[in-house]
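Data card: per-record layout.
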Amino acid sequence: TVSVLYWPLAPRAETVMPTVPKTAKARRELEAAREEAARKAAAAAAAAEEEEEEFDEEEEEFLDSDEEGGFEEGDELGFSDMEEDDEEEEEDDINDDDDFETKAAKYKQKMLKISREAAEEMLADKQRDAKPKVLGTADEDEFGGVPPAGADGAEGEGEEDDVAQAGLGGMQHSAQELRDRVKEVVRVLSNFKELREEGQRREDYLSVLRADLMELFEYNEFLMDAILEMFPPHEAVQFLEAMEKDRPVTIRTNTIKAKRRDLVQALTKRGMHVEPLEKWSKVGLQVFESNVPVSGTVEYLAGHYMVQSAVSFLPVMALAPQENERVLDMAAAPGGKTTYICSLMKNTGVVFANDVSATRAKALNGNLQRLGCTNAIVTNYDGTGYEKICRNFDRVLLDAPCTGTGVISRDKSIKQSKSADDILRMSQLQRRLLVSAIDAVNANSPTGGYVVYSTCSFMVEEDEAVVDYALRARHVEVVPMGLPFGRPGVTKYRRHRFDPQVAESRKFFPHVHNMDGFFVCKLRKLKDGPKQGAEDAGAEDAAETPAPQPKKKVVKKQAPAPAKSAENGAPQSSSPRVNDPKVSRPPSRKVGGKAPRPADGASDDAKTNRAEKEPVAAKAAKKKTASGAKAGSKSKKSA
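The structure for this 639-residue chain is written out next.
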């Protein structure tokens, strides 16, 4: 017997067929349900028609109220416009029942409408993107531009002054409006031939740019003119914007007491976020964030670091002092560069730290002690003529006093306080200091003979002009500094032409290097003594650069004339030395029996000099007679 087992894998699906009522009763019920559904649909349609009628009535009421003046012109609802647009669309629609000519006319109208709308949109976009004219009459220019050259309203005399004064059109503008116009003027000046307005000169654009920048950044006329002459327009704007920003906070590791890696770890524990400055510096650190004062940590008080700007590292790096050398820092206070020199020399040799101010010399001494510099000597002398006090140095660093135009980001008052007189007065002082520094260095030094000159100013009169004067006055040459960056010094400025060697110097700007404005130049002394014709060069410079007005001397009132003696009528001097009976006086020449009176207008100094010469002559005569008497006695003894 064979048995077969079947295991069902899935239940079989049943086919559902529509049920058809089989009896008459069921058919009647189905018809009644259909009639009920139709009745409900008709009621819904009637309700929709009623709502549509109510909406039309409300729309007519709104339109009637609009016609009666119930709404203002700005409050129009625009139902009529919508109806007109609908009617136009219905008219423009192309129906299949229309003949060929009607279809062509409607199609042509439709295409004209589309092209007109496209033209209107293009015109609106062009008007929206179009920028207002930078120059033009005050009526046409919404910015209040200046009138074009030769236009009505611009006077012939003082035209440039009128353009400069009309740069803002007598209107007050916001900072954003000024920035927009400055940006547009710079854009035009970058491609002046193609972008300029018809009939406008380049001077007109520059005058508008100058006036806007002066109002926007609050510089005086002298500094703004100097900046615009030094940089092209687009770079001048970048320079001014960079001067408004703060420079990064940097510190220098004192390698006498600490290493940079250990200092980073210690400051990180104090809550300071510091990172190495740049590849060109092995001791610099940049402070990004700090929960404690940078100059209030234990490490600062212990002398492990010095708060110092990054740009002030560069003069010492250019000087490159060696161990066991004699180095002079002619303007050393407050001591950032001096302590860096001591650390590079590893406290060997001697460093003379000089400063003309006694108060600043105290701060200099305090920093030297805090950082552990034991090879430094602090002096308090005037830098001009320092070679008469001490000389034969291997290297000299002169971080000369200057107007400080490179550190405007730290002192905003410089924008308005510095003038041409300040620049000229400071440049003359810098020339004297640089010549003294050159005279103090030893030209025959086996390891040195170098002078580094630096300023925190970007003015050419304080930088390249001073170096050019030193090249003409002393036997020196400009040598490369070995710094990995920096712009070369200028050799052409206004009407001046400097020595080509000046290009070896380096200038640093905030918008390029993110540092304060600075100038560094390294000189090597070739021979002692001034150059032949150095006095003539100095005279030429003095003629080109007018000296500042000296202070008025206080003239003391002259004493009343002394009383005449009763014997000969000669004036009696109040000087006890002259009236001393022991001092012999030469007989006075008499004219007509009277002693001669001093000439009118003779100074008291001339009288004093004559009075002092008389006892000197008497003493010489006494010595001569005494020596003659001794010689006579000796001759008698020999006889």
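Known properties of this structure: The radius of gyration is 48 Å. The chain has a mean pLDDT of 77.

See the next section for split statistics.
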